[in-house]
Amino acid sequence: MKILKDILYKVAIESVTGSTDIAIHKIDFDSRKIEENDVFIAIRGTLSDGHDYIEKAIQLGATAIICDTLPGNIEKGVTYIQVKDTNTALAFMAANYFDNPSGKLKLVGVTGTNGKTTIASLLFQLFQKAGFKVGLLSTVKIMVDETEYKATHTTPDSITINHYLNEMIEAGVTHCFMEVSSHGIHQKRTEALHFVGGIFTNLSHDHLDYHPTFAEYRDVKKTFFDSLPKTAFALSNIDDKNGTVMLQNTVARKLTYALKTYADFKAQILESQLSGLLLKINDNEVWVKLIGTFNAYNILAIYGTAIELGLDSLEALRLLSDLESVSGRFQYIVSAGNVTAIVDYAHTPDALENVLKTIDDIRTKNEQLITVVGCGGNRDKVKRPIMAKIASDLSDKAILTSDNPRNEDPEVILDEMEQGVDAHNYKKILRITDRKQAIKTACQLAQPNDIILIAGKGHETYQEINGVRHHFDDMETVKEILEQLNK
């Protein structure tokens, strides 16, 4: 049991009705999970408003309500705390409830459009190899040392974050690497967390279904760095035009990484092959198993972070050379018929272009490049024609298909994608709504030495159609089809 007034520390309170000197069981923002002596925090979401469920929460046993607007009916024996912003209140209350676990380990946040999962996951891998107990909060999974949990959001809600950070403390974890999404920052999920460092990867077209403008998307990312303490480091990719913007107002120690310009951590690509990269990082050569220019940036961010967290530079390079690629990030197989199939999460125009250009850099041009790509439903529509244009411009053949149509008509999504294809590229494209059939067609079209890129879903093991998630794994599907064709 906790005392309510103790978990209200640092919460901006506007009014109190009732006593804060009461014992409470737990805190929650989901009225369906409320039990006797719980605190219900009314959050205004995009689809529903928690204030509409205050009465239900009280009926289920809530003894305290946190809200930004007091309800018309005040129940006797219930404490009402009116706050300026319930999202921010939730963040501080969650941290206080779990005794502020983020301050008891070294927490590093990774933000940007692309590369967050790769950088966070490989930092987890590197520090594990260095002998530390490590935590990970990522799109793909949550790790508490050796124990894996399923991830549901890129940046979970404040209660979930602090719950797992607390689990990490109990497991003896000393370092945690966390993806920080623009949604998470905007909804104050990272408020009240103590970060020892922040990493900026890059910024390109994404999430404009949520943020009204690109400028707001950029500025939300920037607030993460603005809030870092003086004791933290802010490591930014200054080859990206927004890299210096992220550092403008931060009081953290400013550090940079780049391939094209002078930076604290600088790299040069000496060799680029399907088997990996030979890099020169700050005058030392290192071979890594990751592929492409975009991964050279990721490796630099990982190296810079490792140095900032106290690893010896030569030890950091040795560990970099041992890192394995992340699930669904440029994962590839070569079939018995010598067809290379690559699965990548590239679901933004910038990411798709990077992957296709990487493949172009390492291919001989004597083979076909066949790209299978779709766009998600109920998400940013502006990028749909752009994605199709990139795929048709940079591939020998592009198959437009479904991603996660969700509640949209997949044919409408494909219509909108097709609008971006230039007239001279129409002969290159096929339109196959069923994703499995699209992948099968790509495999049937492929000749020995050809390359198939299956983009957009990466690590995901489902396809969401009309609100229902069906099992679907791109890598599993292409392996199975290629094996059948080889037989």
Automatic annotation (TrEMBL):
Carboxylation is probably crucial for Mg(2+) binding and, consequently, for the gamma-phosphate positioning of ATP. It is found in: Cytoplasm. It catalyses: UDP-N-acetyl-alpha-D-muramoyl-L-alanyl-D-glutamate + meso-2,6-diaminopimelate + ATP = UDP-N-acetyl-alpha-D-muramoyl-L-alanyl-gamma-D-glutamyl-meso-2,6-diaminopimelate + ADP + phosphate + H(+). The keyword Cell wall biogenesis/degradation applies. A motif (Meso-diaminopimelate recognition motif) lies at residues 403-406. GO terms for molecular function: UDP-N-acetylmuramoylalanyl-D-glutamate-2,6-diaminopimelate ligase activity. Residues 328-458 form the Mur ligase C-terminal domain. Its EC number is 6.3.2.13. Pathway: Cell wall biogenesis; peptidoglycan biosynthesis. UDP-N-acetyl-alpha-D-muramoyl-L-alanyl-D-glutamate binds at S31, T154, T155, S181, Q187, R189. Meso-2,6-diaminopimelate binds at R379, D403, N404, P405, R406, G456, E460. Its cofactor is Mg(2+). The modification N6-carboxylysine is found at K221. Its main location: cytoplasm. Residues 24-97 form the Mur ligase N-terminal catalytic domain. It comes from the Bacteria. Pfam families: Mur_ligase (PF01225), Mur_ligase_C (PF02875), Mur_ligase_M (PF08245). The keyword Heme does not apply. Residues 110-302 form the Mur ligase central domain. ATP binds at G112, T113, N114, G115, K116, T117, T118. Keywords: ATP-binding, Cell cycle, Cell division, Cell shape, Cell wall biogenesis/degradation, Cytoplasm, Ligase, Magnesium, Nucleotide-binding, Peptidoglycan synthesis. Catalyzes the addition of meso-diaminopimelic acid to the nucleotide precursor UDP-N-acetylmuramoyl-L-alanyl-D-glutamate (UMAG) in the biosynthesis of bacterial cell-wall peptidoglycan. Belongs to the MurCDEF family. MurE subfamily. NCBIfam families: murE, PRK00139.1-4. This is UDP-N-acetylmuramoyl-L-alanyl-D-glutamate--2,6-diaminopimelate ligase. The lineage of its organism: Bacteria, Pseudomonadati, Bacteroidota, Flavobacteriia, Flavobacteriales. The gene is murE.
